[in-house]
């Protein structure tokens, strides 16, 4: 464990009120972050606040020493750090870490940071939570980040473009025009469990839209940038452009389904058009059909509706026709 960190007693000595009730839950997800996790933990433990906070870490059955390092810190900070240490990898079984963390939060607010990123500003939580406490019209706050590689070398001083280093209103959040960096966000716990979330690939886009149902987003230029790490083990940074496009289409489709289910026709229509435009611009119609079936759970979601509208025999005929066209399409 790194030296020169404040003890648990020193951190808690500045807290006011009931120290057993954290105002903020720091949420951290890890997987094979042995080389990086101590940076993240240090970023949490340097926070200077006058309110209590907790640190909840979910590790998805890392195969390196990540869990050993987490246990070492938990032993030193037993009243601050709580852990969810998996023995079998949940992500490979289709279960996201957010589902395990959601029920563990005790705070009024949640602050996110994955185990390969880290915070640099000791006043980050105090600034963001202090603002949200004073401005109920805002539901989330954020700041910028610096991009570094696995060795800590700076690749870009600012991750966000200048157009996104600002506040966002509710409509911008709802319509997917806001870019909020995961490791920078602090937000009110307003969201309940959403059925569509288990199908969505790009959870950050969906999350920002859901935030827009409850308020605005505040950008804090006065907070020193966090560190966003690009490395071979990173899920998003190692994703190909083709797969990223697939993920966007998937996300827009399920956002359409969510807003449709909840009766918000304006945003249901927006995400339906966005999804269809992206599909039609890149993929032939018969591939769109098979993609919905195979990769977006379309058939399972709309099987009964399709049978009622087309009839079972007609539906089978369409399925066989599209499958036959797909088989006869020359491969590039």
TrEMBL record:
Keyword terms, alphabetized: Transferase
An annotated Gene Ontology molecular function: hexosyltransferase activity
Domain of life from the UniProt record: Bacteria
Transmembrane segments: none
Keyword Transferase carried by entry: yes
Domain Glycosyltransferase 2-like: 28-177
Keyword match Secreted: no
Database matches in InterPro entries: Glyco_trans_2-like (IPR001173), Nucleotide-diphossugar_trans (IPR029044)
Full protein name: Glycosyl transferase family 2
Protein species of origin: Aliidiomarina minuta
